[in-house]
Amino acid sequence: MNKISVRGGRKLQGEVNISTAKNSILPIIAASILSGDKCVIDEAPMLEDVFVISDVLRSISADININEEANRIVIDTSNIKDDSEPSSNLVKMMRASFLIMGPMISRFGKFRLSLPGGCNIGTRPIDLHLKGFSALGAEVNVGHGYVEAQAKKLIGNKIYLDFPSVGATENVMMAAVMAEGETIIENAAEEPEIQDLGKFLNNMGANIIGAGTDTIRIIGVKNMKGTTHKPICDRIEAGTFMIAAAITRSKIKINGVNEEYLKPIIAKLTEVGVKIALDGNSMYVDADSDLKPIDIKTMPYPGFPTDMQSQMAGLLCTIKGTSVITETIFENRFMHAAEMKRMGANIKIDGRSSIIEGVDKLTGAEVRATDLRAGAALILCGLAAEGETEVTDIYHVDRGYVSIEKKLQGLGADVERITG
Ligand code: UD1
Predict the structure, then answer these.
(1) Is position 119 annotated as part of the catalytic site?
(2) Which residues are responsible for catalysis (predicted)?
(3) DSSP state, 419?
């Protein structure tokens, strides 16, 4: 089992390049199903989640060539058949696998796949996705661990999402691109990755207006074709490195960012007292020891992202005074707290809030990455802690960070991956 060992206490310096976004490329790979043609993704992030969704598509006969050296993925979906059913083992590995449902119904008028992520269903339902498919005229059935949908013809409709779910917005958008007439998605999620998916779909021949706003208009087209695309930068990876600078009270340069997407993170780090300066697509992050505690509430974009919550918790553990983080998107996203406590953090969980009392110092310990962002947060805590921290179950982190240890080494951190 791979782990990452961090010997804390070093200041960071130098620069780091941000990869393209995991949450952009996953729906984009799913969307490539729509064309039955060839799509090329340039500057693709080589992440475990990308390999898993590629395997999901391969299990329905897509031909996917991943060139890790060139960071290029070529996807040919011409061999997918209308009765294709993906490997349930792969689908269960990753919730984002469910994003192939919309494109498959759109292209073939029917699809069946196992419910994604088994035990996740209770807390991360797919009801909004299914309501959207039904509104477009699909007959949807759930049972025996499978979801099935079929429609002779999808017909555009007005769909109001009860909650601006990222995945449901994307899945319904992809299902609607070739539906007859016009679809309007209201209360849509506004994340930048949805705007990116809209751009990709439009380059494939779709007619989508407003992706990235709360109202998306989709005028159905007859056919989709292949295209080439470079996903947007990963705002969560950028935010994680911003906190790497802040938690070590260092100054670093982060390249390949988009200020617009980072506004909620910039606002909160500025409130903490971190100095942030933009220079085109680069950002200087400068933190000294005089940082202040703050309160944060996670919200759908453009609010503070839930995917930055645990990393921010790590930083706030090192700042004197009381900070409160309220999580409004997911019910159970404080699993990092128990691990951080092993490092000397003072965190209390009260319902949907975590109350963090800053401590004088964190101390190295063996801790477990309980999920992707929690794992990243523990590595960050390790950078600030006295002594050695070992973060186990690092496969969670590899789902969403490209060579995190190499990027940190490039900034001067004493970090290494231990394999075996
Ligand atoms: C996406 C991101 C993930 C991020 C999350 C919230 C990808 C691949 N993943 O996940 O990194 O943490 O957005 O920003 O882009 N919900 C329902 N019914 C549904 C769908 C969702 O109740 O049908 C609820 C979920 O249980 C959750 C909330 O809506 O409480 C947000 O989920 P959603 O926006 O759908 O997240 P994902 O698309 O799964």
Answers:
(1) yes
(2) 119
(3) -
95 lines ligand 1 (CB under 6 A): yes
Instruction: Using alpha carbons, select from 257, 260, 347 the residue that is nearest to residue 309.
Output: 347
The secondary structure element, H or E, covering residue 17 is: strand 15-17
**Residue keyed to tokens 């555009």:** 156
My answer on whether omega of the bond before 125 falls inside 30° of 0, hence cis, is no
* Right CATH for 22-229 from 3.30.160.20, 3.65.10.10, 1.10.357.10, 3.40.250.10: 3.65.10.10
Decide if 143 contacts 110 (C-beta within 8 A): no
- C-alpha torsion 40→46→52→56, nearest 10: 10
| pLDDT, tens digit, 9 for 90 and up, residues 393-420 | 999 999 999 999 999 999 999 999 999 8
Q: How far is CA 101 from CA 34, 35, 76, 241, 293, in A?
A: 11, 14, 18, 34, 43
Span 3-19+233-418 CATH architecture: Alpha-beta prism (3.65)
Task: Find the 309 Cα to ligand 1 centroid distance in Å.
Answer: 15
Mark the binding-site residues for phosphoenolpyruvate, compressed into ranges. 22-23
Q: How far is it, in rounded angstroms, from Cα 260 to Cα 285? A: 16
Encode pLDDT of 284-339 as tens digits: 999 987 899 999 999 999 999 999 999 999 999 999 999 999 999 988 889 999 99
Of the listed ranges 122-131, 248-257, 281-290, the least confidently predicted one is 122-131
Q: Is the pTM of this model over 0.90?
A: yes
From the list 373, 376, 365, 385, the residue with the least C-alpha distance to 317 is 385
